[in-house]
Design brief:
This protein is of the alpha/beta class. It is about 30% helix and about 20% strand. It folds into 2 domains: about 5-180 and about 250-355, Rossmann fold (3-Layer(aba) Sandwich), CATH 3.40.50; about 185-245, Alpha-Beta Plaits (2-Layer Sandwich), CATH 3.30.70. The model has no long low-confidence stretch (mean pLDDT about 95). The protein binds iron/sulfur cluster (2 copies). One iron/sulfur cluster binds near residues 189, 208 and 226.
């Protein structure tokens, strides 16, 4: 039997209160309650967005999820992990203060925020998966210990993976710092010297401190120390940095799919996912700048299947617009690499039954 994906459409530009009301309707109309049991510690995973990002999921939607989890008799908490790159979310202290500034206070959401990977991003547990790339993956400790999981995913394009949606929120978003580094290990970018204007932005943001200016005033990356996080690529405003496509371009997507699998492997029947298809932008919410939406808002999807919900996201964006979200943002990427691999390792299905609410 194909997994169910529920779809509740929203008009373009629906206010956060209307989005939250739609999410409440979807919680009630879908089979989300089956993932929750009385006295569960239920992790609600989403991204608060980097500084200057205002297209992330609104706090009102998180409050809706918190209320629903609590009504099932479970104990909801919000959780995130530290980012690899320098910014407002690079450690627990900065991240929690930033989450508050972004509007995700206990007063606004009704639940506490917990850093799943500890103070510095290194609190982790090994989860055996016997994948194609990894025998085990390093997942943030508190995410593994949570009894059940609700993800609120914000689909966007992505500079390195083509699509940032449920698989990415699970795979990258629940990996410890070491886990994130292992996923990025093959993607080494290089500077195009003729385009570099020596603004030093990439030097400031590189988490590995492996970029320096040469005597000719051009940025130069030390590939031996680069961890392939791609941060320099997104902060350079002069298109002066390129990924090394000589490396296997499919590795990151496959690695992310295996990490996503590891994050839900022990939660069979205990995880439920929502893709909030509003304010969909070319780049993900980790980019520290204001973005404009690429396409009009579509609505909200809900499913127990993390693969099917992302496939449905691509299908619905393609149906409503000239091409799917990835093709409109980063056409060089094939987002089905992550989806096919996730299905192959046993995480979910590429096929689904769409149920309109
Ligand atoms: S951000 Fe771009 S232009 Fe600025 S120093 Fe780095 S490579 Fe050069
Ligand atoms: S040089 Fe490497 S480690 Fe530094 S920001 Fe770029 S991809 Fe990340």
């Amino acid at each position: 039997m194909k997994p169910k994906v529920y779809f509740l459409p929203l008009p373009d530009g629906a206010a956060p209160a209307a989005q939250a009301a739609a999410l409440a309707t979807l919680f009630a109309a879908s089979d989300a309650a089956q993932a929750l049991a009385r006295n569960d510690f239920t992790l609600i995973k989403f991204s608060v967005g980097e500084k200057n990002n205002d297209t992330h999921i609104a706090p009102a939607l998180v409050k809706t999820a918190v209320d629903f989890v609590r009504s099932a008799g479970a104990s909801p908490f919000l959780g995130e992990t530290s980012t690899l790159y320098k910014g407002e979310r690079m450690d627990a202290v900065k991240h929690l203060l930033h989450a508050e500034r972004q509007g995700f206070s206990i007063a606004a959401t009704g639940a506490p925020f917990i850093m799943l990977d500890g103070l510095l991003g290194n609190s982790e547990l090994d989860v055996e998966i016997q994948g194609e790339l990894f025998p085990s993956v390093k997942i943030a400790r508190e995410a593994v210990l949570a009894d059940s999981l609700i993800t609120l995913n914000h689909p966007t394009g992505h500079v390195a993976t083509g699509l940032g949606a449920c698989i990415k929120n699970l795979g990258m978003g629940l990996a410890s710092r070491m886990g994130k580094m292992r996923q990025h290990s093959s993607m080494k970018p290089a500077v195009i010297a003729e385009k570099c204007v020596a603004c030093k932005k990439c030097l400031e943001w590189c988490p590995a401190d492996c970029i320096a200016l040469t005597a000719h005033n051009k940025a130069l990356i030390d590939p031996a120390r680069c961890i392939g996080c791609g941060e320099c690529l997104t902060v350079c405003r002069f298109d002066a940095i390129q990924y090394n496509w000589g490396a296997d371009p499919t590795y990151l997507q496959k690695a992310m799919a295996e990490y996503a699998y590891g994050s839900v492997k022990a939660k069979a029947g205990k995880a439920y996912h929502f893709n909030i298809m509003v304010n969909m932008t070319k780049d993900c919410d980790c980019i520290s700048r204001k973005q404009h939406k690429l396409i009009p808002d579509l609505g909200i999807l809900a499913s127990a299947d993390p693969v099917a919900i992302d496939v449905a996201t691509l299908d619905l964006t393609a149906k409503a617009h000239s091409a799917n979200l990835t093709a409109l943002s980063y056409p060089k990427h094939d987002p089905y690499i992550q989806l096919r691999h996730a299905a192959k390792v046993g995480m979910g299905s590429l096929e689904y039954e769409l149920i309109d609410i």
